Amino acid sequence: MNVEPKTVARKFDWESAKAQIERARIALDSAESLSPQQELQLLQRRAMELALEPPAVPADSEVMEVVGFQLGDEYFAIATDFVLELTHPDSITPVPDCRDELVGIVNLRGTVTSVWDIRKLLGLKRSRQGDAQPSVLVLGKERTEFAMIIDNVETISTIRIDEILEPMGGTRSGRELIFGSLRDGRLLLNGDALFGCVELYIDETG
User: Fold this and answer.
1) DSSP alpha helices (H): ranges in the chain?
2) pLDDT tens-digit profile of 11-60?
3) E strand spans, 26-183
4) Which of 18, 130, 139, 192 is the most exposed place for a label (fewest CB within 10 A)?
């Protein structure tokens, strides 16, 4: 007759387990403890970090929001204060016997708006004509003043006014339309000068 060996139950050694836990606690405390010199260095480093002032947030009067756009291979920007909308009219109606800069007129929700190509005024080559749906930047403040043909719209960004450089590029006659140059090379148009430019309005008295 086969007799299966009896299974001997071992008694759990609680004392040994407690000793192991205590040794682990002591080792952890030792790893986290610092010498007096190390504590002093840590306190000095934290004091220096707290003493550093956070970068000041510029006031609204110190920054300008601009929309960037392309005219051919040249990059420009204008303050969003002067921009009402970007649109893509299906067609632009030509106006006979007008200056070459005048591309035509469009009806924007009941408002007849002149569309201009300002490249000649800036000393650049004229824009392509005949695009099925050209990009048009509508300019104005309280009301629509006029619109201008552009090739591409870049992202809207915020710039610091004190980082605007002296204007570079453009023709001698077009420099009055340039407010300055941005750090990335874009020319910042002067919206007030554009609105006051007699060459960008249709003479309706004739």
Assistant:
1) 14-32, 36-51, 191-195
2) 556 676 666 666 655 655 554 566 677 667 767 777 776 666 666 677 77
3) 63-71, 74-79, 83-87, 102-108, 111-116, 135-140, 144-150, 152-160, 178-181
4) 130
| 144 close to 201: Cβ distance less than 8 angstroms | no
How far apart are the C-alpha atoms of 111 and 117, rounded to whole Å? 19
pTM over 0.70: no
Instruction: Tokens for 185, please give them.
Output: 């090379």
CA angle 4, 10, 14 (to 5 degrees): 170
User: Residue 117 in contact with residue 126, Cβ under 8 Å?
Assistant: yes
Q: Which amino acid is at 53?
A: E
pLDDT in tens, 65-104: 999 999 888 899 999 999 999 999 988 999 988 888 899 9
The C-alpha atoms of residue 101 and residue 117 are separated, in whole angstroms, by: 5
Dist CA 2 CA 21 (whole Å) = 44
Answer yes or no: are the C-beta atoms of 149 and 100 closer than 8 Å: no
**Residue 40: what pLDDT?**
74
For 187, the enclosing helix (H) or strand (E) is: strand 187-189
